[in-house]
Amino acid sequence: VETLLAYVNSGSVSLAAQQLYCHRNTVLNRLARVHQLTGYDPAVPADAATLIAVLNCRVQAQAGSDAPRS
């Protein structure tokens, strides 16, 4: 998740690698794994938008489950 966000926010494998303090091949491998698991390619803008939307939904769902119940 962190790698995907770093890549989408920077728009660059090299910049994402710098932000994550890892080799650019590590970022490429992680993005390939995202593609393999989801069928969405983070390098394709429409697919990246879908992945980010899903991550946002996940964050919202987790935030909602952490809220105190009345």
Automatic annotation (TrEMBL):
Q: Which InterPro entries match?
A: CdaR-like_regulators (IPR051448), PucR_C-HTH_dom (IPR025736), PucR_C-HTH_sf (IPR042070)
Pfam families under this entry?
A: HTH_30
Specify the protein name.
Answer: PucR family transcriptional regulator
Q: Where is the PucR C-terminal helix-turn-helix domain?
A: 1-54
Superkingdom of origin: Bacteria
